[in-house]
Design goal:
Alkaline Phosphatase, subunit A, 15 strands, 4-stranded antiparallel beta sheet, single chain
Length: 446
């Protein structure tokens, strides 16, 4: 028997196979449109690092997140579950009556409402816990909403999540990349010392506001004739690109790149306002392409063939099962995503879904209470169905409603011909609306 096992081991090594588990780095940009990369065709923003990464990766340009808002979107990426399944439908919790008052995380009684969400999410088997059971060390950096990262399986974390010290959506973790990557370097030292594979949740607060880029980058775009607000945002995108280069260089210098899976996605979109520091309509907090579309990239040298795929639809819920399968970890049945490496299965599916909620949750026990819209993309077609009670209300923000559809009528777009959704084809195509409504309802119907 021993001779047989030795022969098998020898054969695997000779043929280039290895039982060494891959490391995983998940990079999540924050508030960036799918168009805002050089490789995606932007005529002014320069992203040389991510351009190179895209060429070396299996790059899907038609990726979609599950919600156009950071907290529910990130919750889906980590858990592999859609928004109405994990139940985190907004960023904060609004008090009854849909007033402007919100539940204070630092209040003795009001904090218990937030704790209920953390505890419920803790029951989900997310990436860190599942990988941890397989022997992985894990580090949380950057954006994180769900209380102490350790309760969700992380062995190491930058975020303290103490509301008394400003804990809300990442606190100390938001310094990553804006102030270097020393915490990642220390974590990599420890992983090497313990000889364990690692998982890094790298969610820097970039290019998210505050838009305070290095002066040379700001001046660069200001000289190109952009408004100061747009110049700052463009500079933030390039700064984020530079920080990705710093991380990639660290992996290279340590000889880790070959056996490390690096996956990239953004949490939600952003259109920079020309005359203010805020985002423009139809981007963040809105279910339109500039709010929910993102490139999704996976790089694993020698294991994943590099290819630019501009047709196949993929979802951010595909990321968790991809990572788990690559690491040899069983995928929970609750995760409905498809392995991003299985291009045949993705093309056969040819549909993705999403949920758009208000910025604040109105009722944490009712996942439709703050629902504004549902969306489905199938082939070249996209359907948006809006909730008549919540769509476009003042507290939802102007970006929640399309300026040509303040009544919340169904919206149907051919996003191949009309990627910026200017021509609503719903009234002219009732059969297509009915067909796609049936698909959307089969996924999730409130």
């Amino acid at each position: 028997m021993k001779r047989f096992l030795f022969f098998v081991y020898f054969a695997m090594c000779h043929l280039g196979f290895s039982d060494e588990r891959p490391n995983v780095v998940l990079i999540l940009s924050d508030d960036q449109s799918w168009t805002d990369y050089s490789f995606m065709g932007h005529k002014m923003i320069e992203t040389p690092v991510l351009d190179k990464f895209a060429k070396e990766s299996l790059t899907y340009t038609r990726g979609y997140v599950t919600s156009p808002l950071c907290r529910p979107s990130l919750a889906s990426i980590f858990s592999g579950l859609h928004t109405p399944v994990h139940g985190i439908t907004g960023n904060d919790i609004r008090k009854k009556g849909k007033s402007k008052g919100k539940f204070n995380r630092n209040h003795l009684q009001e904090g218990k409402i937030h704790e209920q969400i953390y505890a419920d999410y803790e029951k989900r088997d997310g990436l860190a816990r599942l990988l941890g059971k397989a022997g992985y060390l894990s580090l949380q950096t950057g954006k994180w909403w769900e209380g102490k990262p350790q309760r969700h399986g992380f062995t190491h974390a930058m975020t303290h999540a103490d509301p008394a010290k400003g804990g809300r959506h990442g606190d100390a973790g938001l310094k990553i990349s804006r102030e270097g990557i020393k915490p990642i370097q220390g974590f990599l030292d420890e992983a090497a010392k313990e000889k364990k594979p690692f998982f890094i949740w790298h969610a820097p607060f970039l290019p998210h506001t505050p838009h305070n880029p290095p002066k040379d980058l700001f001046d660069k775009y200001l000289k190109k004739g952009e408004s100061k607000f747009v110049a700052r945002y463009y500079a933030m995108v390039e700064w984020f690109d530079q920080t990705c280069g710093e991380l990639f260089e660290e992996l290279d210098n340590r000889g880790l790149s070959k056996n490390t899976i690096v996956i990239y996605v953004t949490d939600n979109g952003w259109i920079q306002s020309v005359d203010s520091g805020r985002y423009a309509p139809l981007s963040k907090q809105a279910p339109y392409e500039m709010g929910v579309r993102t490139p999704i990239m996976i790089k694993w040298p020698g294991k994943v063939e590099s290819k630019m795929d501009r047709k196949t639809l993929v979802s951010s819920v595909d990321i968790a099962p991809t990572i788990l399968k690559a690491a040899g970890v069983d995928i929970p049945k609750a995760m409905t995503g498809v392995d991003l490496r299985d291009t045949a299965a993705l093309k056969k599916r040819d549909v993705v879904f999403g949920f758009d909620g208000n910025h604040d949750m109105f009722n944490i026990n009712d996942r439709t209470a703050n629902m504004e819209s549902r969306y489905v993309v199938k082939g070249d077609w996209k359907l948006l169905l809006h909730d008549p009670e919540n769509y476009g209300l003042p507290y939802a923000g102007k970006s929640a409603a399309h300026p040509d559809n303040l009544e919340g009528k169904p919206e149907l777009y051919n996003v191949k011909a009309d990627p910026h959704e200017k021509n609503n084809l719903a009234e002219a195509n009732p059969e297509k609306v009915a067909e796609m409504t049936k698909v959307l309802d089969a996924w999730w119907k409130p």
